[in-house]
Amino acid sequence: MAKHAKTPKGPSQRQLSVGEKVRHALTETLQRGDLRDPLLERAVITVSEVRMSNDLKLATAYVTVLGQSEMKPFVEALNGHAKYLRGRLSPALRQMKYMPEVRFREDDSFDNYARIDALLRSPDVMRDLEATEGEDDNKEER
Predict the structure, then answer these.
(1) Which H/E stretch holds residue 59?
(2) Do the Cβ atoms of 100 and 59 come closer than 8 Å?
(3) Which ranges constitute the DSSP H helices of 33-104?
(4) Do 31 and 46 touch, CB atoms closer than 8 A?
């Protein structure tokens, strides 16, 4: 009997749901300003996504800091306070069997969106779009 190749699956509905709950709890905790870190106290931190591991014991939070181009010091500071933040999440996530370990990563999706947008607005793409529109007009006239 031939084995079927497994197709990579995305996160389960449970992972997505728990990830969103963790994201909300992290956002609320960071907004309260409980962290006593001079770097983080003055920063506006946005948690754009939280991805959960299959066993829901590890949460990877993707963050951006508004108005900052260099994210590395902020991510390192957040990772340094990860255990404290994990403890502060407990009341909001008390329905979970295990409290997930939180790690922080830089969210570069906005950079990817900006790069794709710049590519779509480039003169080469615009020229190709105009050529395609011209071909469509010629087909309609026939």
Answers:
(1) strand 58-65
(2) yes
(3) 38-41, 72-80, 82-89
(4) no
What six digits make up the tokens of 118?
């710049």
Rounded CA separation 23/35 (Å): 17
Residues 72-115 have pLDDT tens digits of 999 999 999 999 999 999 888 888 888 999 999 998 877 777 78
Query: How many distinct helices (H) and strands (E) make up the chain?
Result: 6, 3
Q: Is the alpha carbon torsion for 74, 87, 51, 47 positive or negative?
A: negative
Q: What number of CA atoms fall less than 13 Å from residue 38's CA on the CB side? A: 0
Residue 50's Cα: distance from chain center in Å? 6
The whole-angstrom separation of Cα 75 and Cα 63 is 8
